[in-house]
Amino acid sequence: MKKVKYILGCAATIAMLATACSKIEEVPGDTADKPKFTDKSKVLVIVVDGLAGKQVKAVAPPVITQMLAHSTYSYDTRADTVTTDGASLATLYTGVPYAKNEIRDSSLVARSTSGARYAPFLSLIKKTGKRALKTISVTAWDAVNKTLLADATTKVTTKDDDKAVLDSAVNRLKNDSLDLMFVQFNGINKAGKQYGYYSYIPEYAAAINQVDAYIGELLKTINSRPDYQNENWLVIVQSTHGGLDKSYGSDSDAEMNSFSLYYCPDLFRYQIDQPQTIPASIKFNEQNEKTVNAVLNDATAYNFGAPSSANQFTVECKVKTPKGSNPTYPGFLSKRASFAAGQVGWTFFQEGSYWMINLSGTGATKNLQAKGADINDGNWHHLTCVFATKANNVRVCSTYTDGKYNNAVTVTEFGNLNSTAPLTIGFIPGSINTPVTIYMADVRIWNDTLPAATIAAFSCTNVLDQHPYLSKLVGWWPVNERKGNVLRNAVPAAAGKDFKVNGTFTWEAMNYVLPCAGNADKQNPPNNTDLCYQIAYWLNLDLNPDWEIGGRLWLKFF
User: What pTM, to 2 d.p., does this model score?
Assistant: First the structure.
């Protein structure tokens, strides 16, 4: 079993975010003894609208980054499949998803009597009469104080400004006796709606850093409370949802990407990462008028030019073909107008059970190809082609399958490989006897030659933030939208260089967990419905099973 550490006797302050603690032995298993509850146990819940987990990871704001050392946290927390503001807050404050509480819009009221059965967590606790919690809510959204947090002891509605929310919250923390406090910031969501929910957008990143500074002020205020040394605080930072471009409300991965952080100086660092998966894809198939393919919106992008030390490239993708399929010559990833002989450019294609790359250039009228490996077993495979220019401008094209080297051909004679045709997933015209049928994901283009060891190390993953050549990534299409006809480029410098999917298609669930060693010990990350569970744990509140509050306990690593 895994060993989990916990610490006691910590003398550090929250403001310092560093500790000098006496450790006791590792506890076998992952169910360390529950911390002793006292009437000094308190919870601060900081709700942050529109804070996408993956984007806060990229920004790495200083206060949150310091908190991580003593937090359980996840950049992969999942919001509910309905990510409107109303539904997202209702999920947090009721502990059940929209399918049960039926709260979708800004009225914050259930659509039916069956939905109304799932009352807010605070209301349910109050109804039991077992404990009179002293609770405070500070928000600029008055409807929240009148509905989801109506049973808070003290409700403060401020003007629609995060600084006003901060000032009110600080004042209450300094002067009020309390057990539980909710503070809601919405400046990040405003920035996302106006500019986009991405870390590389200055306004969105600035909004994250501003709220981060406000979190720092709240922590300092807690530390300055007269009886702080005797209090036992859990600070939760919980976002509502992420966003896709400048919108949210639906169930794309980007919109459902949330963030959870549970902080206390007596916690060891524990990050919960989502297992690496291919959640969904599109079947690229057929040809001519029935074609389902995806075409890049910039035909000039991703040309590899003539052999030179400046033109070094690597192309990678993950593919899945039907089991036992043996088609003849269908191209499925191309920078080329046609598969016909003498057409400048390159094409990944399938020939029988295996894949190959076919090339032609301005320096020759023939085609040349390098063989890959079998891919027709119905499983996902990672394909790589390295375009390397060596000494004396000799260009070599090398193929790899699932990180293993296959073949190489010298293509120097083809000269310049630039094509006026756009990068295309799926059908292109030409010498094709069997239409393509293939699923694709994790398409990558690097402006460098990746070493064999690096290709092998990152062939079984679609997480690239630790990739040693990350600065050389010039195009990356995860194909994880699960909705719409746009496959977005995830490289900040290439934002907008997207694929448009053509034809009649549907997004199909894959739910494929990549067979990586790093996935072995991973578990599904938290959901937004888990918030109430953590609060109840820390404040020693009983959750009635009839309430159907979901989630699991993430604070047992204590």
Answer: 0.84
